[in-house]
From TrEMBL:
Segments forming domain SH3b: 228-276
UniProt name for this protein: Peptidase C14 caspase catalytic subunit p20
Region forming the signal peptide: 1-28
GO biological process, one term: proteolysis
Domain Peptidase C14 caspase: 340-534
UniProt keyword list: Signal
GO molecular function per UniProt: cysteine-type endopeptidase activity
InterPro entries according to UniProt: Caspase-like_dom_sf, Pept_C14_caspase, SH3-like_bac-type
Length: 590
């Protein structure tokens, strides 16, 4: 490579500036404590040059400048910044802004002159813009341009020519990146901004770790993806991403809900409790928190919760039947003063029914659906009919009978003004001959389900007679005669009975947890029904995101169905080796 006189002057200036920087240890310490992430845009067309013909031969060479920037910019910056990474996605850039600075390199122009054996040289001009931004905005920006000449032998073949051009052009860009470093060191505004950022980090770091309580637990990722972050904040920088069902070791918890993740006993980052589910928790929490000493020239790492020897016990339930809803909030829906909701959670069967097992997560499922009805659907709390452990008389008085559909719900509906939302979590069962399906009240007799159950056909028919604008029914129940907690009838055959598919009236939409011969599965800790949990997560927006949705801010039925198949159905298969597919019925039939 041959440098032009102008190029040599630039390089000498950069070297002089770096020499000045070496005698300012206070600034060097400040800048080394701030994380820098480099972002190029290799997908842009101007980051690739396809080359030109070499004499009469077609010796074109493609140069991927984006990859050069990704590999060389961290090297160029490492003498100033102690921690330099690379952002390859927009999410990576957002994470970087939450925990440090982002260096954006934009290649404006790469202009090669014609190549010929007559001149035996390859001239190229590079123009680029470098800017450094923080969460508060841009703090430094500079545009650079340089021209270099590459000499080569006149008898060079195509392969040697390609290698020479790639090496020369890449080296040219590397020199430009070194010049960016010189520009940084010389810019007084940048130096002042970095010092301010370092000061903010130093004063804010102790606060975010306040109240760290040691624990020893095993959690499982309960969302489609869990992100382990460098700091316990939503923009704390990503350490790694874990798929649904992945197991993580937890050694500490902050009051803000952030859990400290460890690998082989060493703390590696933080994950929020909203994206994980407890599998096992130590019965007696530890009390010690250890401060981690800082390395010379580096900021102090986060404190580490010191957990005692791993004596695991199953995570105890706060009560016999959990009531805590799924940890998710919903975009506030438009208030609809005339809309009505019926929310039923049948959990405690053993107290009144004979030989019918409990549905442990039914209360929590009902609480989650009530929150969804109020927040997302805009239904007033006074318009919610909320029933725990519904007996047959409760179902009859709410929905009516086969002869008289005018129960409490009918009387609450304002004609042609009310939308109705119905949720039921509890047992469902087929009749002995499989000809009918029933909701199972908590006082039912399993052997006489046709007399003590509430006929699903009656439910659909009476809902179809409501003078409502629309009716949506969500069923966290299966109608196979089997359940997560056992067969509904003691000593019954484990061969599932297939319930009859009931006809759905034209104004109804029914979404159920599974088909007639499937089991409605629960989370392994019995905290929620799998269907209810992922229904709520999906309706909170997860179903609108890729790969399930189109990102238009609304969750359609097709998006929800795809999301439930990718999450609920997958987890039922993973946990229990069983199939569970949500069913959707709209109008007169399926």
């Amino acid at each position: 490579m041959n440098l032009t006189p102008f190029g040599w002057i630039r390089m000498l200036q950069a070297a002089f500036i770096l020499g000045m920087l070496a005698v300012e240890p206070s600034f060097a310490a400040a800048i080394s404590s701030v994380q820098l992430t480099v972002a190029a845009s290799p997908e842009q067309p101007n980051y690739r040059w396809a080359g030109k013909a070499y004499d009469s031969e077609d010796c074109r060479q493609t140069i991927d400048f984006g990859r050069v920037i990704e590999s060389e910019a961290p090297r160029a910056m490492s003498s100033l910044f102690g921690n330099v990474g690379v952002a390859r996605t927009v999410a990576d850039e957002e994470d970087a802004l939450g925990s440090g600075l982002l260096l954006k390199i934009e290649l404006k122009r790469f202009q090669p002159d014609n190549v010929s054996t007559w001149s035996m040289k390859f001239d190229s001009t590079i123009e680029l813009t470098a800017s450094i931004v923080s969460s508060d905005g841009a703090i430094w920006s500079k545009s650079l341009s340089d021209t270099r000449s590459l000499g080569f032998q006149t008898d060079m073949g195509c392969n040697a020519f390609r290698r020479s051009v790639e090496t020369g052009a890449s080296s040219h860009l590397k020199n430009m990146l070194d010049m960016v470093l010189g520009g940084l060191a010389a810019d007084a505004g940048f130096r002042s901004a970095v010092t301010d950022i370092e000061s903010k980090l130093a004063t804010s770091t102790p606060d975010i770790f306040a109240g760290l309580q040691p624990m020893l637990a095993t959690y499982r990722i309960a969302e489609s993806e869990g992100v382990v972050r460098k700091k316990p904040t939503a923009k704390g920088g990503a350490v790694r991403k874990l798929g649904m069902g992945s197991i993580v070791q937890i050694i500490g918890k902050l009051p803000t809900g952030w859990l400290q993740v460890a690998k082989e006993g060493e703390a590696i980052g933080w994950i929020h409790e909203g994206s994980v589910q407890a599998m096992s928790v130590q019965s007696q929490p530890a009390v010690a928190v250890a401060a981690v000493p800082a390395k010379p020239g580096k900021p102090a790492p986060a404190p580490i919760a010191v957990a005692p020897a791993p004596t695991f016990a199953a995570a105890p339930a706060a009560e016999a039947f959990p009531t805590k809803p799924v940890a998710v909030s919903f975009p506030r829906g438009k208030a609809n003063p005339d809309d009505i909701a019926v929310i039923i959670g049948n959990a405690n069967y053993k107290a009144t029914a004979k030989d019918i097992p409990d549905v442990v997560p039914a209360y929590a499922d009902a609480e989650g659906m009530k929150r969804y009805a109020v927040q997302a659907l805009g239904i007033k709390e006074e318009n919610v009919i909320f029933i725990r452990d519904a007996k047959l008389i409760d179902l009859v008085s709410t929905f009516g009978t086969a002869d008289d559909p005018k129960g409490k719900l009918f009387n609450w509906v304002k004609p042609q003004a009310s939308n109705v939302f119905v949720f039921y979590s509890g047992h469902g069962a087929p009749s002995a001959d499989g000809a009918s399906s029933y909701l199972v009240p908590v006082d039912a007799q399993a052997a006489l389900i046709n007399l003590s159950g509430y006929n699903l056909k009656t439910l659909y028919a009476n809902l179809g007679k409501l003078p409502a604008k629309s009716v949506t029914v969500v069923l966290e129940a299966c109608f196979s005669g089997a359940s997560q907690s056992g067969m509904l009838v003691k000593n019954a055959s484990p061969i599932y009975q297939k319930a009859m598919t009931e006809v759905v009236p034209a104004n109804l939409t029914v979404i159920s947890a599974g088909s007639g011969n499937q089991i409605a599965s629960w989370e392994q800790d019995k905290s929620h029904g799998l269907f209810t949990k992922h229904y709520l997560l999906g309706m909170a927006g997860a179903a609108d995101k890729k790969p399930y949705g189109n990102g238009d801010g609304k969750v359609g039925t097709d998006e929800l169905t795809a999301y439930l198949k990718g999450t609920m159905s997958y987890m039922a298969q993973r946990y229990y080796g069983r199939e569970q597919t949500a069913q959707v019925a709209t109008g007169a039939g399926r």
